Automatic annotation (TrEMBL):
<feature type="transmembrane region" description="Helical">
    <location>
        <begin position="63"/>
        <end position="81"/>
    </location>
</feature>
<keyword id="KW-0472">Membrane</keyword>
<keyword id="KW-0813">Transport</keyword>
<keyword id="KW-1133">Transmembrane helix</keyword>
<dbReference type="InterPro" id="IPR001851">
    <property type="entry name" value="ABC_transp_permease"/>
</dbReference>
<keyword id="KW-0812">Transmembrane</keyword>
<feature type="transmembrane region" description="Helical">
    <location>
        <begin position="121"/>
        <end position="145"/>
    </location>
</feature>
<feature type="transmembrane region" description="Helical">
    <location>
        <begin position="88"/>
        <end position="109"/>
    </location>
</feature>
<dbReference type="Pfam" id="PF02653">
    <property type="entry name" value="BPD_transp_2"/>
</dbReference>
<feature type="transmembrane region" description="Helical">
    <location>
        <begin position="268"/>
        <end position="287"/>
    </location>
</feature>
<dbReference type="GO" id="GO:0005886">
    <property type="term" value="C:plasma membrane"/>
</dbReference>
<protein>
    <submittedName>
        <fullName>ABC transporter permease</fullName>
    </submittedName>
</protein>
<feature type="transmembrane region" description="Helical">
    <location>
        <begin position="240"/>
        <end position="262"/>
    </location>
</feature>
<feature type="transmembrane region" description="Helical">
    <location>
        <begin position="190"/>
        <end position="211"/>
    </location>
</feature>
<dbReference type="GO" id="GO:0022857">
    <property type="term" value="F:transmembrane transporter activity"/>
</dbReference>
<feature type="transmembrane region" description="Helical">
    <location>
        <begin position="299"/>
        <end position="319"/>
    </location>
</feature>
<feature type="transmembrane region" description="Helical">
    <location>
        <begin position="152"/>
        <end position="170"/>
    </location>
</feature>
Length: 352
């Protein structure tokens, strides 16, 4: 065989390996491939309907500041769903913890404080918010794992409890006047990259390592797939659930901190629409609502898809009430597709 033919075969082999790698990354029963196509179609459709507004630099900059809050909340929802449960309290945790952080920063920082003193109180407020978020998550996990209450009922009740507690603390009023150093977290940039986006990327990296490079990820997926088999396999289901809901609470608190940094204020009813949107993102991203399976890449693409759709609808001057209607329709359609698609594939399989 000639050297030319050998090199050509080697090149073809490398190309085939690369093609296989891309296909393997995009394909998870077709979920990632389908989601990638949907994301591109939504982007192209909105670009055609409103090219000047949607494709402007200001629009993309605004998106980069907006979607990280939903993205972090979706990661929190993803963890609970992989375990076979759900966490409806993430927005309640986000608001409660952010209000506590805002109170520390606004009411404890003395007038005329130096930059170093302000940063110290800001750090104390952030740490307090994260600790309270973990404790709220542990409360949910204890009720689910130890008492045995269904997750949807536990987190529905705790959502009302956390939001009610936030209203009592603030008396329904907004906390304003956050320090400028803290507001920079929501409105500042590093080498042109918005700070909220950087925080979201860090959360993605941490979640990826946790689910794919640590034993906890395997235990969580086994628990979500079959709790009985997981228990007989030597996995402490209670410990895994406690860790899962604690991490969900931690991520919710981080989302709450980014949210108040963006708005420079804290209030008990911020972001209530994020609950439905987070569920939509997770389901659209290919996470099994029954537990046991989910990929970070799918959730990220789903967040971008919803942000493209939301920004495009805003450019077309579509009202918020109609957008809520669209979110509900999309959620139902995605769940129907996820249920029907495997059945169609099973019917198409040749017998024998």
């Amino acid at each position: 065989m000639s050297n030319h033919a050998s090199k050509r075969r080697g090149t073809d082999s490398s190309y085939d390996d690369l093609s296989f790698s891309i296909k393997r990354w995009l394909s998870s029963d077709g979920n990632l491939t389908r989601l990638f196509v949907i994301m591109v179609l939504v982007f192209v459709t909105m670009a055609i309907l409103s090219p000047r507004t949607f494709l402007s630099l200001d629009s993309f900059s605004s998106m980069a500041f907006q979607f990280p809050v939903l993205g972090i909340l979706s990661l929190a929802m993803m963890l609970s769903m992989i375990s076979g449960g759900i966490d409806l309290s993430i927005v309640g945790i986000a608001n409660l913890t952010s209000i506590l952080a805002a109170m520390v920063m606004v009411r404890l920082i003395p007038e005329g404080a130096s930059a170093g003193t302000s940063l110290l109180y800001i750090a104390v407020g952030i740490v307090c918010a994260m600790i309270v978020g973990i404790l709220c998550g542990l409360l949910n996990g204890f009720a689910v794992a130890k008492i045995g209450i269904p997750p949807i009922l536990v987190t529905l009740g705790s959502m009302q409890m956390f939001m009610g507690l936030a209203i009592v603390i603030t008396k329904g009023q907004a906390i304003v006047g956050l320090p400028e150093q803290f507001s920079a977290i929501g409105n500042g940039s590093v080498v042109g990259i918005p700070m909220p986006l950087i925080i979201f990327i860090l959360c993605i990296g941490a979640a990826y390592l946790l689910l794919n490079r640590r034993p906890f990820g395997m235990k969580l997926q086994l628990l979500g797939s079959n709790p009985t088999a997981s228990r007989y396999g030597g996995i402490r289901n209670t410990t895994v659930l406690l860790k899962t809901y604690a991490l969900s609470g931690l991520l919710a608190s981080i989302a709450g901190l980014v949210m108040i940094a963006l708005t420079n204020s804290a209030k008990a009813d911020y972001g209530t629409s994020y609950i439905l949107q987070a569920i939509l993102v997770v389901v659209l991203g290919g996470v099994n609502p029954n537990g046991g399976f989910g990929k970070i890449a799918g959730v990220v693409m789903a967040v971008l898809t919803l942000q493209f759709l939301s920004s495009g609808l805003n450019a077309l001057h579509v009202g918020n009430f109609f957008k809520d209607f669209i979110w509900g329709i999309v959620l139902i359609l995605v769940m129907v597709i996820n249920v029907v698609s495997p059945r169609m594939k099973w019917k198409r399989k040749p017998a024998g």
